Amino acid sequence: MTSERLLRIAVPNKGALAEPAAAMLRAAGYRQRTDSKDLTLIDTDHDVEFYYLRPRDIAVYIGRGDLDLGITGLDMLLDSGADASEIMQLGFAESRFRFAARGGESMSVADLNGKRIATSYPGLLQAYLDRESVTAELVKLDGAVESAIRLGVADVIADVVDTGTTLRRAGLELFGEPICTSEAVLIQRNGGGELPPQADALRTRLTSVLVAQNYLMMDYNVELSKLEATKQLAPGVEGPTVSNLAKEGWCAVRVLVPRKGAHLLMDKLYQAGARGILMTELAACRL
Ligand SMILES: Nc1ncnc2c1ncn2[C@@H]1O[C@H](COP(=O)(O)OP(=O)(O)OP(=O)(O)O)[C@@H](O)[C@H]1O
Ligand SMILES: O=P(O)(O)OC[C@H]1O[C@H](OP(=O)(O)OP(=O)(O)O)[C@H](O)[C@@H]1O
Ligand SMILES: [Mg+2]
User: Fold this and answer.
1) Ligand 1, atom 25: nearest CA belongs to which residue?
2) Which atom of ligand 1 is nearest to the CA of 14?
3) What pLDDT is attached to residue 2?
4) 159 ligand 2 Cβ < 6 A
5) Ligand 3 mean position to 145 CA, how many Å?
6) What positions does the domain Histidine biosynthesis HisG C-terminal occupy (predicted)?
């Protein structure tokens, strides 16, 4: 690929985003660092330079225009107040940003007036409190926020929740609606001019990885007389590929199926007469 300049992409270097972000870029055909002490890496085949940065700092670099595109969490982007926006959802590091208090306190958002709230996301929290007309004292912590109540520095916390295990272990209970629902996103500076053509190529490739994650390839053999019934069950995107089979009166079918419910579909296809059914993972898929 030839371009005037390298496309500069910020990739999280630590935390919940780092591994899945690198894995997704690898799946999209890009080189990624193999040594976690490397700060940058140039993929010369694609004219892309990756910068490995703290996830929290990524929106700042993108908002200032120092780098072209970045991968970060939506919650971190909103918290930063940076002049940047999400241009693509990436489907990993899904979490909710929520309030929690000591078990049995049955708090509500209206009770937060005058309380001390510990958080690592003060920007996100303050914007929510302003919207709800709540006045509270924010206690800014870097992490392990769940310990703040036991240690007496806060009455309530607002933190990232995934499985809820960390909260439960700290004896805390959620209350109120989620303040924010987050996942990893690709971000770009607002009104940030034209990017080199590698940016579109990157988005197309990431989309093909996401599509591949949502579909499986299914192959099966079926008697010609039963083909219509199996086609109805699994119509595919533009109709299945039907090929000859050496066995007289039979055919081989290949079709893309949604990953969700694929095993149930396999059962139904078998009942409808399909045999030798195979399900295969896709590495990438452009529809
Ligand atoms: N346990 C989790 N499950 C899913 N997503 C998570 C989890 N923890 C954090 N996240 C999400 O990942 C992103 C980065 O958060 P993370 O906690 O990894 O950053 P950090 O706290 O700056 O890094 P570190 O924890 O290494 O200091 C955020 O968008 C957050 O919502
Ligand atoms: O609901 P769970 O599945 O338990 O996950 C949520 C926890 O994961 C993150 O912590 P992290 O490991 O990033 O540590 P940190 O608090 O120091 O940032 C987050 O801040 C919560 O503490
Ligand atoms: Mg964290």
Assistant:
1) 15
2) 26
3) 53
4) yes
5) 9
6) 212-282
CB 176 within 8 A of CB 108: yes
174 close to 156: Cβ distance less than 8 angstroms: no
For the chain, domains (ranges, CATH) are 7-93+184-196 (3.40.190.10), 95-181 (3.40.190.10), 215-280 (3.30.70.120)
Beta strands 48-53 and 172-182, pairing class: unpaired
Centre of ligand 2 to C-alpha 93, Å, is 11
CA of 146 to the centre of ligand 1 (A): 14
What lies within 8 Å, CB to CB, of 281 at 6+ separation is 212, 216, 217
pLDDT tens figures, 49-64? 999 999 999 999 999 9
Distance CA 74, CA 89 (A): 9
What would the two tokens of residue 184 be?
């990893």
Determine the angle formed by the axes of helices 198-214 and 15-27, rounding to 10 degrees: 100
Q: Which pLDDT tens digit goes with each residue over 201-225?
A: 999 999 999 999 999 999 999 999 9
Element (H, E) at 258: strand 250-258
Q: Does ligand 2 lie within 6 Å of residue 163's CB atom?
A: yes
Tokens of 196: 């080199």
How confident is the model over 69-98, as pLDDT tens digits?
999 999 999 999 999 999 999 999 999 999
CB 170 within 8 A of CB 164: no
Lookup: tokens for 48 = 């892309």
Alpha-carbon distance 134 to 120, whole Å? 18
Output the average pLDDT for the chain: 96
Using the mean position of ligand 1's atoms as its centre, give its distance from the Cα of residue 267 in Å.
39
